[in-house]
Amino acid sequence: MNPETELYPIAILIDELRHDDVSLRLNAIKRLNTIALALGPQRARDELIPFLDESIDDEDEVLLALAGELGDFVEYLGGAQYAHILLQPLENLAAVEETMVRDKAVESLNKICPVLNQSQLEQYYVPLVKRLSLGDWFTSRASATGLYASGYSLATPATQEEMRKSFGQLCMDDTPMVRRAAATHLGDFATKLGKEHLISDMIPLFSKLAQDEQDSVRLLTVTDLVAIAEQLTPEESKIYFLQPLKAMVADKSWRVRYMIADNFVKLSKAVGQEITRDDLVVAFVRLLKDNEAEVRTAAAGQVPGFAELVDKDTILSYILPCVKDLVTDTSQHVRAALAMQISGLAPILGKEATTEHLLPLFLQLLKDEFPDVRLNIISKLETVNKVIGIELLSQSLLPAIVELAEDKQWRVRLAIIDYIPLLATQLGVEFFDEKLGALCMSWLGDSVFSIREAATVNLRKLTEVFGVEWARQTIIPKVLAMGTHPNYLYRMTTIFAITAMAPAVTAEVIRDYIMPTVTNLVSDPIPNIRFNVAKSIEALIPVLSLNPDTKPLVDQQLKPALVKLSEDPDNDVRFFALKALAQ
Fold it and tell me: How far, CA to CA in Å, does 122 sit from each of 50, 292, 520, 530?
């Protein structure tokens, strides 16, 4: 190979990496693997990595891309035995000012660490962690906290002891940002330790951070508590964690209480049944009654999960009164979170208690003034239906559902439409025709396109539930009558509806009822109708072709209609007609 052409890729890269235009520098970084392949492992190690290390860019975007690329670069250097060469440039990136770059560098270092052998780890990785841990700037010390967990298991016992001490010093660092980073990674590091060191070294560090003066540090220890408690027996958890837990629930900062509320089920599972039953029920009630709406919202989201961990009497005596209060909470977000979760209590409480205690609350939430609350309760009604049966559900909630079907918020109407086929399956055809049939047809004329579209799909699902004969008598005549409506949107909806329903009805129904309407609308004055007719014909051809009795109709009626549309003055109509003819 000509040496000049061999040097060509690296020359381009160097030019682009030094270019004034950031986008060119960024593209060069994203093409590093191609360049490395062109150079081969030896030159990638000897030239490319030193060059990248020397020319650390000043643009965070470029540095971020570089930090990400280097994590997947081991194979381009000749395999794991050379992986340590990547540590130097990543060490520099882990010390820069921009948090995103540092985090990406730490992520890449954690990817490379598992492929290092013990001598590489002791010779290169551990000294790197030490240098970062003792860095003058808080940025390098903060990055160091994320590197202990991945290297710990491979290290020798003496190095492990040093690593524990060094991590402990970072937990006591003067800079809150470093303590925050230490709290973020404490749980992960703790899971790599044996129980003896976990109790002797990690729990004191956890306790110190859990009492930190900065709430931004304290709130991060909640997930550490979960990680450490999962490694301990319930008895040990009670000894070490009961007091910190109680302190967190009563913390003066709402952000700490929010974190506890948001992780309450995980915490309860981690510390075991005894603490949950004896101490955490009261704590949970306290969070459900917290004076901050954000905390109540997080706690409301944990209600069914926590209810599974305690007995039925506890739910009825302690949790349900709080749930009743939350149904009328002043914050709409609390009510919306509760509406999303409250149905999860039904399987736990059983039919009788659900009917007595929960149904009135569902009804109240269905009438809430905030649309998201109504939406959330509708989307979860299936869970309740499985517990109490459709009869009770329809008696108590159907009036509210019918009211919501005409809700001024279209997303609420949409949620109701999605729920209709399920209701129809449970209610039976007579009840459905009497209570909900007219409603389903009214949606076809809705002012919002998404509702009209969902209504057409709904008709197909109903046809699958009640059968083709029901559709032929009840729905199809009404749909086809809209095909002659003076407003073009109604005629358009007819086309959408018959296209959606075609796969669910028989070829005979298509021939006798749907075909005449389609062929009439071929000559509609509105181009939008005509091109949707072409799309509809495209969907009808495969259905008709399957039945030998209706197959001739494809050539007799549908294809001539498409030929006519393919000569239409409108471009879109011609396009869809030709597309349908080509199939």
Answer: 22, 49, 82, 74
